[in-house]
Every structure is written in structure tokens, then in C-alpha cells.
Amino acid sequence: MTSHNHHATTSSSPDEPGAGATAQPPLEFWDELYKAKPAVWSGRVNANLASVAGTLTPGRALDLGCGEGGDAIWLAQQGWRVTGIDISTVAIERARAAAVDAGVDAALLDFATGDLETWSPDDELDLITASFFQSPVHLPRAEILRKAALMLAPGGHLLTVAHAGVPSWVQDSEHPAHLFVQPDREIAELALPAGEWETVIAESRTRDVASPDGAPGTLEDSVVLLRRMG
Ligand SMILES: C[S@@+](CC[C@H](N)C(=O)[O-])C[C@H]1O[C@@H](n2cnc3c(N)ncnc32)[C@H](O)[C@@H]1O
């Protein structure tokens, strides 16, 4: 997450497009969402990404759906050479500005706009991250993650962190259940070649956060770390 009280706030917001907006083109949907606020996410790395990726040896990383760049910037600060990709030009402009503000070595970090559905990776990678890479509009998440995973070098990791359910303070989500990610289902949907992948982490983790009105609440995250054997 880069932020992820954030998702909670947006999911309970009356002006967030819900199921009725599912036909909206993804670029239009995401650019509109970003333009509506000066910052949508917190700008900070998400706690699960930091705790898991923090144990890995830095190499070449790719952050899918990087949003405003908080995770990619943090990875670069740990010594990873990182590319962040997002469909939203607004988000990528913000990510670039945030990297400059953070003083990140430009040789370690770059951001690109692109639709990951049609994008082809052209580099061998040591880490692919996708934090809250979920969308109420069209997003072939599993296909994109699989395509990216197959670009991992032997020993490389795929790390996904995702909303596993609605925030504790939300009674009725307009988000259909299939938009939430469960660790085991995620791994099954990835359908990676048998015998080539080790499941290092497949967990649902509960996080204590403040709800939008300040009361204590919890969020449920799916955390999956797969390692390409070899
Ligand atoms: C819920 S946000 C998460 C952003 C960021 N990873 C974070 O944790 O704050 C999902 C992101 O996926 C991006 N996205 C959605 N569909 C995409 C696509 N087809 N190609 C690239 N990025 C996409 C959106 O623009 C958005 O920034």
C-alpha cells in the first residue's frame, strides 16, 4: 500500500465510482481518481512490503501499478534498482516529483506510464512487487502478474500485498467480493509452471489502523511471496 488507510477512505466515499463504473476505461478511471485529490495515498511504503522486501538482497525490481511511488522510492532507498509502472500519467508525475523530493539517486529509480495489460517486460528481474494492484474497473490482475513473474531470474521473488476484505468499519462495500484477494486463491490463479516456484509466504495479515473518523479499526491484507527456483 502506499497508504492504505487510503483505500478505506476511498471505498467509503460516496463519490467513488462503484460497480456501475466498471465499464469505464482504466486510464480515464485512474486519472480521474488521482486528479480528484492532490495526494491519494500516504506516500509511505506499506508495512508488509517493507517487512518482507526488507529481508531480500537488493537487485533489479519492478513495481506494478506503482501509483504515487511510495513503495518504489522506498525500495530504491534500500539499494534496489527500481522501475515503477502505472497506467495513470497523473500518478507517475507525482511519483517522479516525490522521488526528487526524497533525494533518491536517479540512477536507481525510474517511473514509466503504461498499461500493464499490453506491456511486455524486457529485462530480467530479481523482484516484482504489486501492492494493492486491484481495481473496480477492468484489470486482468492474474495475467499481468503471471507475465511479470515469468521475467524473474532464478532465485527472484514476486511479492503481492492486497486488500483481502473490507475495512472493519465498512458495513457494506460496493466492491464485489471477487475484487478482494485471498492468498491461496491468488497463487492458484497465477497458475505458474508447476515445480518451478516456492511459496515463501501466503498469509492474510490484520493491520491496526485508525478509521476515517479516528476510531481504532483493522484492515486485512493478503501477503504472498513466491520465489522462482533455479
Ligand atoms: C489501488 S492503486 C495502488 C497504488 C500503489 N501500488 C499503492 O500501493 O499505493 C492501483 C494502481 O494500479 C494502477 N493500474 C490499474 N490498472 C493498471 C494497468 N492496466 N496498468 C498499469 N497500472 C494500472 C492504477 O493507476 C493505480 O495506481
Task: Walk me through the topology.
Elements: H1 6-11, H2 26-35, H3 47-53, E1 60-64, H4 70-77, E2 81-86, H5 89-102, E3 109-113, E4 125-131, H6 141-149, E5 152-163, H7 183-190, E6 197-210, E7 216-228
The structure holds S-adenosylmethionine.
Describe this protein's structure:
By secondary structure, the protein is α/β, with parallel strands linked by helices. The chain has a single domain, classed as 3-Layer(aba) Sandwich (Rossmann fold). It is built from seven helices and seven strands. A seven-stranded mixed beta sheet has the order 3-2-1-4-5-7-6, sandwiched between helices. It is globular and about 45 Å long. The two termini are about 30 Å apart. The structure holds S-adenosylmethionine (SAM). S-adenosylmethionine binds near residues 41, 66, 86, 117 and 132.
